[in-house]
Design goal:
Length: 435
Protein backbone atom coordinates (compact mmCIF):
# COMPACT_ATOMS: atom_id res chain seq x y z
CA UNK A 1 0.00 0.00 0.00
CA UNK A 2 1.25 3.50 -0.75
CA UNK A 3 2.49 5.53 2.19
CA UNK A 4 0.18 8.09 3.74
CA UNK A 5 1.46 10.48 6.40
CA UNK A 6 0.44 10.04 10.00
CA UNK A 7 -0.82 13.62 10.12
CA UNK A 8 -3.15 12.89 7.20
CA UNK A 9 -4.29 9.56 8.63
CA UNK A 10 -5.04 11.20 11.98
CA UNK A 11 -7.77 13.12 10.19
CA UNK A 12 -9.52 9.85 9.31
CA UNK A 13 -10.20 8.69 12.86
CA UNK A 14 -13.82 7.40 12.79
CA UNK A 15 -16.29 9.68 14.52
CA UNK A 16 -19.92 8.63 14.89
CA UNK A 17 -21.00 12.28 14.90
CA UNK A 18 -19.70 12.65 11.34
CA UNK A 19 -21.78 9.75 9.98
CA UNK A 20 -25.11 11.50 10.41
CA UNK A 21 -23.66 14.67 8.95
CA UNK A 22 -22.52 12.98 5.78
CA UNK A 23 -25.78 10.97 5.53
CA UNK A 24 -27.84 14.18 5.62
CA UNK A 25 -25.48 16.31 3.55
CA UNK A 26 -25.75 13.92 0.63
CA UNK A 27 -29.52 13.75 0.55
CA UNK A 28 -30.66 17.33 1.08
CA UNK A 29 -34.19 18.45 0.34
CA UNK A 30 -34.85 20.48 -2.76
CA UNK A 31 -38.43 21.37 -3.68
CA UNK A 32 -37.87 20.58 -7.37
CA UNK A 33 -35.03 18.09 -7.52
CA UNK A 34 -35.31 16.14 -4.28
CA UNK A 35 -38.67 16.76 -2.53
CA UNK A 36 -38.23 13.59 -0.44
CA UNK A 37 -34.79 14.70 0.71
CA UNK A 38 -33.83 15.76 4.21
CA UNK A 39 -34.61 19.36 5.16
CA UNK A 40 -31.30 20.72 6.41
CA UNK A 41 -31.86 22.95 9.43
CA UNK A 42 -28.42 22.01 10.72
CA UNK A 43 -26.11 24.05 8.54
CA UNK A 44 -25.33 27.71 9.28
CA UNK A 45 -26.51 28.66 5.85
CA UNK A 46 -28.61 31.79 5.62
CA UNK A 47 -30.88 31.14 2.62
CA UNK A 48 -33.18 34.16 2.96
CA UNK A 49 -31.63 36.48 0.38
CA UNK A 50 -30.23 34.02 -2.13
CA UNK A 51 -32.41 35.22 -5.02
CA UNK A 52 -31.25 38.83 -4.57
CA UNK A 53 -27.58 37.81 -4.34
CA UNK A 54 -27.81 35.45 -7.33
CA UNK A 55 -29.43 38.13 -9.42
CA UNK A 56 -26.82 40.73 -8.40
CA UNK A 57 -23.97 38.35 -9.22
CA UNK A 58 -25.44 37.38 -12.58
CA UNK A 59 -26.21 40.95 -13.59
CA UNK A 60 -22.73 42.18 -12.75
CA UNK A 61 -20.51 39.21 -13.61
CA UNK A 62 -19.04 40.83 -16.71
CA UNK A 63 -15.53 39.47 -16.40
CA UNK A 64 -12.59 40.26 -18.68
CA UNK A 65 -9.34 38.39 -19.50
CA UNK A 66 -7.71 39.81 -16.35
CA UNK A 67 -10.02 37.65 -14.25
CA UNK A 68 -8.51 34.54 -15.81
CA UNK A 69 -5.05 35.42 -14.50
CA UNK A 70 -3.53 34.98 -11.03
CA UNK A 71 -4.26 38.66 -10.48
CA UNK A 72 -1.99 40.45 -8.05
CA UNK A 73 -1.00 37.53 -5.86
CA UNK A 74 -2.17 35.81 -2.68
CA UNK A 75 -3.19 38.90 -0.74
CA UNK A 76 -6.12 39.28 -3.12
CA UNK A 77 -7.46 41.90 -5.48
CA UNK A 78 -6.45 45.42 -4.30
CA UNK A 79 -9.81 46.87 -5.40
CA UNK A 80 -11.65 44.30 -3.26
CA UNK A 81 -9.35 44.95 -0.30
CA UNK A 82 -10.02 48.69 -0.61
CA UNK A 83 -13.79 48.13 -0.81
CA UNK A 84 -13.64 45.81 2.17
CA UNK A 85 -11.54 48.29 4.15
CA UNK A 86 -14.24 50.89 3.67
CA UNK A 87 -17.00 48.38 4.59
CA UNK A 88 -15.05 47.44 7.75
CA UNK A 89 -14.60 51.12 8.52
CA UNK A 90 -18.36 51.62 8.41
CA UNK A 91 -19.60 48.39 10.05
CA UNK A 92 -16.79 47.41 12.46
CA UNK A 93 -16.06 51.02 13.52
CA UNK A 94 -12.38 50.32 14.20
CA UNK A 95 -10.58 52.65 16.57
CA UNK A 96 -7.74 52.95 14.04
CA UNK A 97 -8.28 53.32 10.30
CA UNK A 98 -8.23 50.04 8.36
CA UNK A 99 -6.61 50.10 4.93
CA UNK A 100 -6.22 47.56 2.12
CA UNK A 101 -2.74 46.59 3.36
CA UNK A 102 -4.26 45.31 6.63
CA UNK A 103 -6.36 42.77 4.73
CA UNK A 104 -5.58 39.42 3.14
CA UNK A 105 -8.30 37.67 1.13
CA UNK A 106 -8.68 33.89 1.18
CA UNK A 107 -11.22 31.22 0.32
CA UNK A 108 -13.50 31.16 3.34
CA UNK A 109 -13.34 32.01 7.02
CA UNK A 110 -12.44 28.38 7.73
CA UNK A 111 -9.29 28.76 5.63
CA UNK A 112 -8.37 31.90 7.54
CA UNK A 113 -8.54 29.99 10.85
CA UNK A 114 -6.51 27.18 9.26
CA UNK A 115 -3.83 29.59 8.03
CA UNK A 116 -3.72 31.45 11.36
CA UNK A 117 -3.36 28.19 13.29
CA UNK A 118 -0.52 27.19 10.96
CA UNK A 119 1.21 30.53 11.52
CA UNK A 120 0.68 30.84 15.26
CA UNK A 121 1.76 27.52 16.71
CA UNK A 122 3.81 24.36 16.42
CA UNK A 123 2.09 20.96 16.10
CA UNK A 124 0.94 19.98 19.58
CA UNK A 125 0.44 23.57 20.78
CA UNK A 126 -3.09 24.62 21.69
CA UNK A 127 -5.73 27.23 20.90
CA UNK A 128 -8.41 27.88 23.54
CA UNK A 129 -12.04 27.74 22.42
CA UNK A 130 -15.06 28.06 24.71
CA UNK A 131 -17.83 25.44 24.85
CA UNK A 132 -20.10 25.14 22.99
CA UNK A 133 -18.11 26.09 19.88
CA UNK A 134 -18.71 26.36 16.16
CA UNK A 135 -18.13 22.80 14.96
CA UNK A 136 -15.91 23.83 12.03
CA UNK A 137 -13.26 25.16 14.40
CA UNK A 138 -12.19 21.58 15.15
CA UNK A 139 -10.87 20.78 11.65
CA UNK A 140 -9.89 24.39 10.97
CA UNK A 141 -7.49 24.35 13.92
CA UNK A 142 -6.37 20.77 13.83
CA UNK A 143 -6.62 19.06 10.44
CA UNK A 144 -3.57 20.67 8.83
CA UNK A 145 -1.76 22.76 11.44
CA UNK A 146 -2.05 19.97 14.05
CA UNK A 147 -2.75 22.49 16.78
CA UNK A 148 -5.02 21.19 19.52
CA UNK A 149 -8.40 22.85 20.08
CA UNK A 150 -8.34 23.12 23.90
CA UNK A 151 -11.93 23.33 25.13
CA UNK A 152 -12.97 25.74 27.86
CA UNK A 153 -15.89 24.62 30.06
CA UNK A 154 -18.10 27.18 31.83
CA UNK A 155 -20.47 25.12 33.99
CA UNK A 156 -23.29 27.48 34.94
CA UNK A 157 -21.48 30.64 33.89
CA UNK A 158 -22.87 32.42 30.82
CA UNK A 159 -20.15 31.95 28.13
CA UNK A 160 -20.77 35.44 26.72
CA UNK A 161 -20.51 37.29 30.05
CA UNK A 162 -17.49 38.90 31.70
CA UNK A 163 -17.45 36.08 34.28
CA UNK A 164 -16.50 33.62 31.52
CA UNK A 165 -13.07 35.22 31.07
CA UNK A 166 -11.81 33.51 34.23
CA UNK A 167 -12.65 30.10 32.76
CA UNK A 168 -10.30 30.83 29.82
CA UNK A 169 -7.52 31.80 32.22
CA UNK A 170 -7.99 28.62 34.25
CA UNK A 171 -7.97 26.51 31.08
CA UNK A 172 -4.75 28.23 30.00
CA UNK A 173 -3.00 27.26 33.25
CA UNK A 174 -4.37 23.69 33.18
CA UNK A 175 -3.05 23.32 29.65
CA UNK A 176 0.36 24.67 30.50
CA UNK A 177 0.57 22.31 33.47
CA UNK A 178 -0.28 19.44 31.10
CA UNK A 179 2.53 20.51 28.76
CA UNK A 180 0.36 22.08 26.03
CA UNK A 181 1.50 25.60 25.15
CA UNK A 182 -1.45 27.85 24.39
CA UNK A 183 -0.86 30.26 21.51
CA UNK A 184 -4.23 31.94 21.04
CA UNK A 185 -7.86 32.26 22.06
CA UNK A 186 -10.38 31.88 19.23
CA UNK A 187 -13.90 33.25 19.60
CA UNK A 188 -16.83 33.41 17.22
CA UNK A 189 -18.17 36.89 17.93
CA UNK A 190 -21.22 36.99 17.79
CA UNK A 191 -21.42 33.53 19.31
CA UNK A 192 -21.99 30.44 17.20
CA UNK A 193 -24.00 28.38 18.25
CA UNK A 194 -25.63 30.55 20.97
CA UNK A 195 -26.82 33.23 18.52
CA UNK A 196 -26.03 36.23 20.64
CA UNK A 197 -23.24 38.78 21.01
CA UNK A 198 -20.63 38.80 23.74
CA UNK A 199 -20.91 41.56 26.31
CA UNK A 200 -18.45 44.44 25.91
CA UNK A 201 -17.06 43.52 29.33
CA UNK A 202 -16.28 40.03 28.05
CA UNK A 203 -14.50 41.40 24.96
CA UNK A 204 -12.43 43.85 26.99
CA UNK A 205 -11.71 41.06 29.48
CA UNK A 206 -10.48 38.90 26.58
CA UNK A 207 -8.17 41.66 25.35
CA UNK A 208 -6.73 42.07 28.84
CA UNK A 209 -6.36 38.34 29.35
CA UNK A 210 -4.59 37.79 26.03
CA UNK A 211 -2.29 40.66 26.94
CA UNK A 212 -1.53 39.15 30.35
CA UNK A 213 -0.87 35.70 28.88
CA UNK A 214 0.88 37.13 25.80
CA UNK A 215 -1.21 35.10 23.35
CA UNK A 216 -3.13 36.01 20.19
CA UNK A 217 -6.83 36.83 20.13
CA UNK A 218 -8.64 35.69 16.97
CA UNK A 219 -12.12 37.12 16.69
CA UNK A 220 -14.21 35.49 13.96
CA UNK A 221 -16.79 38.18 13.15
CA UNK A 222 -18.56 36.63 10.16
CA UNK A 223 -22.04 37.52 11.50
CA UNK A 224 -21.37 41.27 11.78
CA UNK A 225 -24.57 42.26 9.90
CA UNK A 226 -26.74 39.26 10.83
CA UNK A 227 -28.60 40.87 13.75
CA UNK A 228 -32.37 41.35 13.73
CA UNK A 229 -35.11 42.55 16.08
CA UNK A 230 -37.75 40.19 17.44
CA UNK A 231 -40.34 39.96 20.22
CA UNK A 232 -37.67 38.17 22.29
CA UNK A 233 -35.05 40.89 21.73
CA UNK A 234 -36.83 43.99 20.37
CA UNK A 235 -33.66 46.05 20.30
CA UNK A 236 -30.76 43.77 19.45
CA UNK A 237 -27.46 45.09 20.76
CA UNK A 238 -25.41 46.60 17.95
CA UNK A 239 -22.51 44.60 16.58
CA UNK A 240 -19.28 45.37 18.43
CA UNK A 241 -16.01 44.38 16.80
CA UNK A 242 -12.91 43.90 18.94
CA UNK A 243 -11.30 46.37 16.54
CA UNK A 244 -13.60 49.11 17.84
CA UNK A 245 -11.93 49.23 21.27
CA UNK A 246 -8.91 51.49 21.86
CA UNK A 247 -6.72 48.39 21.72
CA UNK A 248 -3.47 49.89 22.98
CA UNK A 249 -5.21 50.63 26.26
CA UNK A 250 -5.65 46.89 26.88
CA UNK A 251 -3.17 44.90 24.80
CA UNK A 252 -0.32 44.98 22.33
CA UNK A 253 -2.57 45.45 19.23
CA UNK A 254 -0.34 43.13 17.18
CA UNK A 255 -1.97 40.23 19.08
CA UNK A 256 -5.46 41.02 17.73
CA UNK A 257 -6.83 39.53 14.47
CA UNK A 258 -10.30 39.58 12.96
CA UNK A 259 -11.97 37.43 10.30
CA UNK A 260 -14.85 38.49 8.07
CA UNK A 261 -16.45 36.62 5.14
CA UNK A 262 -19.00 36.79 2.37
CA UNK A 263 -20.57 33.52 3.57
CA UNK A 264 -23.09 34.64 6.19
CA UNK A 265 -24.13 38.28 5.79
CA UNK A 266 -24.29 37.81 2.00
CA UNK A 267 -26.01 34.38 2.09
CA UNK A 268 -23.21 32.91 0.00
CA UNK A 269 -21.36 30.09 1.81
CA UNK A 270 -20.59 28.52 -1.53
CA UNK A 271 -18.65 31.41 -3.04
CA UNK A 272 -15.74 30.67 -0.67
CA UNK A 273 -14.29 34.07 0.06
CA UNK A 274 -13.28 35.84 3.24
CA UNK A 275 -10.73 38.21 4.69
CA UNK A 276 -8.22 38.29 7.49
CA UNK A 277 -8.05 41.78 8.99
CA UNK A 278 -4.86 42.14 10.99
CA UNK A 279 -3.87 45.79 11.13
CA UNK A 280 -0.98 45.75 13.56
CA UNK A 281 1.16 42.68 12.94
CA UNK A 282 3.27 42.91 9.79
CA UNK A 283 5.16 39.68 10.52
CA UNK A 284 1.96 37.70 11.03
CA UNK A 285 0.49 39.17 7.83
CA UNK A 286 3.62 38.21 5.88
CA UNK A 287 3.53 34.66 7.30
CA UNK A 288 -0.16 34.40 6.49
CA UNK A 289 0.42 35.59 2.92
CA UNK A 290 3.19 33.02 2.50
CA UNK A 291 0.63 30.22 2.89
CA UNK A 292 -2.32 32.11 1.40
CA UNK A 293 -1.36 31.09 -2.13
CA UNK A 294 -2.88 27.69 -1.22
CA UNK A 295 -6.10 29.30 -0.03
CA UNK A 296 -6.53 31.97 -2.70
CA UNK A 297 -10.07 32.91 -3.49
CA UNK A 298 -11.08 32.68 -7.11
CA UNK A 299 -10.98 35.95 -9.04
CA UNK A 300 -14.62 35.28 -9.90
CA UNK A 301 -15.56 35.17 -6.22
CA UNK A 302 -13.52 38.31 -5.63
CA UNK A 303 -15.30 40.02 -8.50
CA UNK A 304 -18.76 39.07 -7.12
CA UNK A 305 -17.99 40.37 -3.64
CA UNK A 306 -16.39 43.54 -4.99
CA UNK A 307 -19.49 44.26 -7.07
CA UNK A 308 -21.70 43.85 -4.02
CA UNK A 309 -19.55 45.88 -1.66
CA UNK A 310 -19.29 48.80 -4.07
CA UNK A 311 -22.99 48.90 -4.92
CA UNK A 312 -24.14 51.26 -2.16
CA UNK A 313 -27.77 51.61 -3.36
CA UNK A 314 -28.06 47.80 -3.40
CA UNK A 315 -26.62 47.44 0.11
CA UNK A 316 -28.94 50.14 1.43
CA UNK A 317 -31.97 48.04 0.54
CA UNK A 318 -30.30 44.63 0.93
CA UNK A 319 -29.48 44.72 4.65
CA UNK A 320 -32.85 46.06 5.89
CA UNK A 321 -34.65 43.39 3.83
CA UNK A 322 -32.20 40.71 5.05
CA UNK A 323 -32.88 41.65 8.66
CA UNK A 324 -36.66 41.90 8.14
CA UNK A 325 -36.74 38.39 6.65
CA UNK A 326 -34.68 37.10 9.56
CA UNK A 327 -37.19 38.62 11.98
CA UNK A 328 -40.07 36.88 10.18
CA UNK A 329 -38.33 33.51 10.06
CA UNK A 330 -37.28 33.82 13.70
CA UNK A 331 -40.82 34.72 14.88
CA UNK A 332 -42.30 31.82 12.91
CA UNK A 333 -39.78 29.36 14.37
CA UNK A 334 -39.98 30.58 17.94
CA UNK A 335 -43.79 30.57 17.93
CA UNK A 336 -43.57 26.91 16.92
CA UNK A 337 -41.06 26.26 19.72
CA UNK A 338 -43.21 28.04 22.30
CA UNK A 339 -46.33 26.18 21.19
CA UNK A 340 -44.47 22.94 21.76
CA UNK A 341 -42.95 24.19 25.03
CA UNK A 342 -39.44 23.71 23.76
CA UNK A 343 -36.98 25.84 25.73
CA UNK A 344 -34.63 27.89 23.58
CA UNK A 345 -31.95 30.48 23.95
CA UNK A 346 -33.36 33.77 22.58
CA UNK A 347 -31.16 34.76 19.65
CA UNK A 348 -30.59 38.26 18.29
CA UNK A 349 -27.92 37.56 15.70
CA UNK A 350 -26.62 34.75 13.40
CA UNK A 351 -29.03 32.46 11.56
CA UNK A 352 -29.83 29.82 14.15
CA UNK A 353 -31.35 29.08 17.56
CA UNK A 354 -29.88 26.90 20.29
CA UNK A 355 -32.74 24.76 21.59
CA UNK A 356 -33.13 22.27 24.42
CA UNK A 357 -34.64 18.90 23.51
CA UNK A 358 -33.27 17.10 26.56
CA UNK A 359 -36.72 15.99 27.67
CA UNK A 360 -36.99 13.93 24.47
CA UNK A 361 -33.86 11.92 25.24
CA UNK A 362 -34.28 8.30 26.27
CA UNK A 363 -31.60 8.94 28.89
CA UNK A 364 -29.11 11.69 29.69
CA UNK A 365 -26.34 10.54 27.33
CA UNK A 366 -24.61 11.35 24.07
CA UNK A 367 -25.87 8.09 22.57
CA UNK A 368 -29.46 9.10 23.30
CA UNK A 369 -28.85 12.49 21.65
CA UNK A 370 -27.40 10.76 18.61
CA UNK A 371 -30.36 8.38 18.52
CA UNK A 372 -32.79 11.31 18.49
CA UNK A 373 -30.79 13.00 15.76
CA UNK A 374 -30.93 9.83 13.58
CA UNK A 375 -34.64 9.58 14.20
CA UNK A 376 -35.09 13.13 12.91
CA UNK A 377 -32.93 12.34 9.87
CA UNK A 378 -35.03 9.28 9.06
CA UNK A 379 -38.12 11.49 9.27
CA UNK A 380 -36.50 13.92 6.81
CA UNK A 381 -35.21 16.75 8.98
CA UNK A 382 -31.66 17.44 10.08
CA UNK A 383 -30.78 19.51 13.13
CA UNK A 384 -27.21 19.92 14.39
CA UNK A 385 -26.70 18.02 17.62
CA UNK A 386 -25.15 19.72 20.64
CA UNK A 387 -22.41 17.11 21.01
CA UNK A 388 -20.87 18.17 17.72
CA UNK A 389 -20.43 21.66 19.25
CA UNK A 390 -18.94 20.07 22.40
CA UNK A 391 -21.97 21.20 24.38
CA UNK A 392 -21.61 20.71 28.11
CA UNK A 393 -25.14 19.26 28.32
CA UNK A 394 -26.92 16.51 26.42
CA UNK A 395 -30.04 17.35 24.43
CA UNK A 396 -29.13 20.71 22.90
CA UNK A 397 -29.61 21.16 19.16
CA UNK A 398 -28.92 24.06 16.80
CA UNK A 399 -31.74 24.91 14.42
CA UNK A 400 -31.17 27.21 11.43
CA UNK A 401 -34.27 29.38 11.15
CA UNK A 402 -32.91 31.52 8.27
CA UNK A 403 -34.51 29.11 5.83
CA UNK A 404 -37.13 29.88 3.14
CA UNK A 405 -40.63 29.62 4.54
CA UNK A 406 -41.87 26.43 2.82
CA UNK A 407 -38.73 24.51 3.61
CA UNK A 408 -38.70 25.78 7.19
CA UNK A 409 -42.37 24.86 7.66
CA UNK A 410 -41.82 21.38 6.24
CA UNK A 411 -38.73 20.88 8.44
CA UNK A 412 -40.56 22.01 11.58
CA UNK A 413 -43.55 19.76 10.77
CA UNK A 414 -41.25 16.78 10.37
CA UNK A 415 -39.52 17.71 13.62
CA UNK A 416 -42.87 18.00 15.36
CA UNK A 417 -43.86 14.52 14.14
CA UNK A 418 -40.70 12.99 15.62
CA UNK A 419 -41.06 14.83 18.91
CA UNK A 420 -44.73 13.86 19.25
CA UNK A 421 -43.88 10.21 18.66
CA UNK A 422 -41.01 10.28 21.14
CA UNK A 423 -43.23 12.01 23.69
CA UNK A 424 -45.87 9.31 23.33
CA UNK A 425 -43.29 6.57 23.78
CA UNK A 426 -41.85 8.23 26.87
CA UNK A 427 -45.35 8.64 28.34
CA UNK A 428 -46.14 4.99 27.64
CA UNK A 429 -42.91 3.86 29.30
CA UNK A 430 -43.70 5.95 32.35
CA UNK A 431 -47.18 4.47 32.42
CA UNK A 432 -45.79 0.90 32.32
CA UNK A 433 -43.24 1.72 34.99
CA UNK A 434 -45.98 2.98 37.27
CA UNK A 435 -48.11 -0.20 36.92
C1 LIG B 1 -18.31 31.36 13.21
C2 LIG B 1 -18.04 30.77 11.85
N1 LIG B 1 -16.83 30.89 11.31
C3 LIG B 1 -16.55 30.38 10.10
C4 LIG B 1 -17.49 29.71 9.38
C5 LIG B 1 -17.12 29.16 8.03
O1 LIG B 1 -17.20 30.20 7.13
P1 LIG B 1 -16.74 29.99 5.59
O2 LIG B 1 -17.86 29.33 4.89
O3 LIG B 1 -16.52 31.40 5.12
O4 LIG B 1 -15.50 29.19 5.61
C6 LIG B 1 -18.78 29.54 9.90
C7 LIG B 1 -19.79 28.77 9.17
O5 LIG B 1 -20.73 28.27 9.73
C8 LIG B 1 -19.06 30.10 11.17
O6 LIG B 1 -20.28 29.99 11.71
Amino acid sequence: MSYISKRALDNLTPNKLHEIRSHCFHNQYDAQNNPDGIVALAVAENKLMREEIVSHINKNMNINPWHLTYGQGPQGDPALRKALASFVQEVFKPSTEITDSHICICNGAGSAVDNLSFCMGEPGDGILVGRPLYVGFFPDIEARAKIKPVLVPFGDVNPTSAAAVLAYEEAFHRSNAAGVTIRAILISSPHNPLGRPYSNEFLIGMLKLCSKLNIHLISDEVYAKSHFPSKDVPEPPPFVSVLSFPLERYIDPSLVHVIYAMSKDFCANGTRIDALISPFNVQLMRSFRAVASFTRASQLAEHSWLNLLTDKPFLETYFPLFQARMTNAYEFTTSFLREKNIPYNPASVTSFIWIDLSRYLREDSLDAELELNWRMAREGVWLAMGASFASERNGNFRLTFATPWEELKLGLERLMKVLNEVEQEINQQMHFRRY
